[in-house]
Specification:
The structure is a homodimer of 255-residue chains. Chain A is an alpha/beta fold and 255 residues long. The first copy, chain A, has twelve helices and seven strands. The longest helix of chain A is centred in the C-terminal third of the chain and has 16 residues. The interface between A and B is large, with 36 and 36 residues. The structure holds adenosine-5'-triphosphate (2 copies) and magnesium ion (2 copies).
């Protein structure tokens, strides 16, 4: 089997969804079988693939309520070459609904264990919080990949994320941070260069060499409902995520 | 009494904290008595004022557990001229803890009703979600001010926010959207101009005339633990928030 990654970071707007979508579609472009899971009630990953969250018969909501069924019944193939378990708007009320369930953090892991389709990479996009959905993403993942905006508030968020990962390791000991991805980098500002320097000094070779620059095409693509490789394949954003996909593949070559 | 505003928007990274802090300190600079409330477990508003969240004896966490005491016992005066109810890291586990309480959405409102200090403006900074903390912010506010990044995902988030506001109106009928603030505007890109056009067309005079531009000084200020008016008073960011403060004052002149 392949690897499962959770793109966890409770700081908002750091590029979790953009990275899950862009990296996932680039890995598919390199010939891998890829599953994306949208675990955010905002359903941005679903929208980013051009799918309307309010038209879905099944979504990740039904998967969490019926983990023994696996994910196939809620999975869609997409024009971008990746499979998707979409989020629907029902998810918005589900966090409190699930809060009372036994093993509430392990629902997604159970569902993936009950899944028979072989994927090389499974990428999970959580919401900007450390609540039930993000805990499910962490408990289902082999590794956490942390999209980190090169700003002060994002860097200050790392200790809380690391503490939450330690907590989850009580029920899922194999979980570790697999990598840190510098996102929304702006080489024109000292702030971006300074924060990147701090990140590389503190986290050393956990940090991917590839840095994702600010590139307006990445912000435009969601309006078109297309991943960056389709919307603007020659853009700096597409090139950066293609490079990141190659680096990830080298770091986690599937057996 | 004055006005209470909640800067609600579940999309992450749109400038909720930056707007609460910058607008609040500019209103204080215009001679008003201002209280800021940090309701986000990330405690960014607290950090933005140079206060360490892990050193606090009292925070908004104790306020929510003891609403009958009011907010004074947890309120600090700050060098920036605003009072603050800070967030501590204890807040991170509190959402599920509060989920079982009767009237769990009304805790902050109760606490503000039990407060005897007179403020002209109370500004509340919620987390990027529509969970218990954000519901408390909505139920305690007179108006919602929506910081809206000029990107597609942020604009798509509006219907869900509006639906949540409708829900809260069942227990707090006077709540309404008081204004929309265009943030992280980038006049060099078509995307920013197009989204701004869509926002102004759909929401008409709810939208403040003042637009907040992308300005690196606003991203640098949190590293220094200073609001923008102190860190870089001549910057485009400081001037924009000063203009917004004047516009807000005109729109909601305190009686
Ligand atoms: N490298 C980039 N250059 C320019 N815009 C970007 C880039 N990466 C992401 N964006 C845009 O910035 C915004 C934030 O990114 P995104 O939504 O992917 O972050 P997120 O961490 O998933 O947010 P949330 O915390 O709300 O889930 C989006 O509007 C997105 O289109
Ligand atoms: N106008 C601006 N120009 C440049 N940077 C900005 C601006 N406004 C905010 N920022 C920076 O962008 C990031 C996001 O802003 P901020 O943290 O205020 O948003 P938020 O909505 O409160 O995020 P969250 O959803 O995590 O609570 C921060 O690093 C902040 O310093
Ligand atoms: Mg996202
Ligand atoms: Mg914030």
């Amino acid at each position: 089997m392949g690897h499962t990654f959770a793109f966890a970071m409770q700081k908002g707007g750091v590029g979790k969804t953009t990275t899950t979508l862009s990296l996932g579609t680039m890995l598919a472009g390199r010939g891998h079988r890829v599953l994306l899971i949208d675990l955010d009630p905002q359903a941005n990953l679903t929208q980013g693939l051009g799918i309307q969250p309010d038209t879905l018969e099944y979504s990740v909501y039904e998967v969490l309520l019926n983990p023994e069924r696996g994910v196939e019944f809620a999975t869609q193939t997409t024009a971008a070459g990746v499979d998707l378990v979409p989020a629907s708007l029902d998810l918005a009320g589900a966090e409190l609904e699930l809060a009372g369930k036994v093993g509430r953090e392990l629902l997604l892991r159970k569902a993936l264990r009950a899944t028979h389709t072989a994927y090389d990479y499974i990428l999970i996009d959580p919401p900007p919080s450390l609540g039930i959905f993000s805990l499910n993403a962490l408990a289902a993942a082999d590794y956490v990949l942390v999209p980190l905006q090169l700003h002060a508030y994002a860097l200050k968020a790392m200790p809380q994320l690391e503490a939450t990962i330690e907590l989850i390791r009580e029920i899922h000991p194999n979980l570790s941070i697999g990598g840190i991805i510098c996102t929304l980098a702006d080489r024109r500002t000292n702030l971006s260069l300074q924060i990147e320097q701090q990140v590389r000094t503190r986290y050393t070779d956990l940090v991917f060499e590839t840095t994702i620059p600010i590139n307006v095409k990445l912000a435009e693509a969601p309006s078109a409902g297309q991943p960056i490789g389709v919307y603007a394949p020659q853009s700096a954003g597409a090139i950066a995520y293609a490079t990141l996909a190659a680096e990830l593949e080298a770091r986690y070559a599937t057996p």
